[in-house]
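New to this. Help decode the following:
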Amino acid sequence: MNKSVLVAIIFFTFIGFVLFADVLIPEPSTTEAPACLPNCAGQDLSGKKLSGEDLRGVDFSNSDLHFADLNRADLRGANLSGADLRFANLRGVRIDPQTQLDDKWRLVWDIVN
């Protein structure tokens, strides 16, 4: 097989996974808003369903939020510096200039919104 064809197959497979990760990855279990509010710094909130929650001003610094469903959550003024947002659903998330978010996650937010 031609090397460039193989690279193209791998590339488009990866892109497909990134674009449709929310369909391919199983739904996280339904949970209530975390008990740690408003100070959730350093907490393990991986896989939590926080869709549509009002999380304005919450401190999520250095928290584990991978696979968290933050779809349509309001994170204006929240502190997410150092948070692990791998595979988190950031579609429809509301942020503002006061939201503290690492540059790579702000870029992801820009792409999906």
User: Anything to note?
Assistant: The longest helix spans residues 3-19. Residues 47 and 68 are 4 Å apart (CA to CA). The mean pLDDT is 87. The domain at 28-113 is CATH 2.160.20.80 (Pectate Lyase C-like).
